Amino acid sequence: xxxxxxxxxxxxxxxxxxxxxxxxxxxxxxxxxxxxxxxxxxxxxxxxxxxxxxxxxxxxxxxxxxxxxxxxxxxxxxxxxxxxxxx
Length: 87
Known about the structure:
Order of helices and strands: EHHEEEE
Largest sheet: 5 strands, mixed
Strand content: 25-35%
Shape: globular
Number of helices: 2
CATH superfamily: RelE-like
CATH class: Alpha Beta
Radius of gyration: 12 Å
CATH topology: YaeB-like fold
Distance between the termini: 32 Å
Strand order of the largest sheet: 1-5-4-3-2
Low-confidence stretches: none
CATH architecture: 2-Layer Sandwich
């Protein structure tokens, strides 16, 4: 049973489409886990931000949690070399 709903920023949706197939499948699985528990094991709060990150191989999912409305907003899904630039 899902507790939260996911909302993708258009840029994050585009990034998901261009991921390698195996990474995209794992990422979707991790996002489904987030919908059940957004503060799942392995997620960490970013310092100085209201965002969290979740590791998927060499990629990171950057997201925020709105507990009142039960929405997870996914901002970025990028390779670790690029994900923290201009955040």
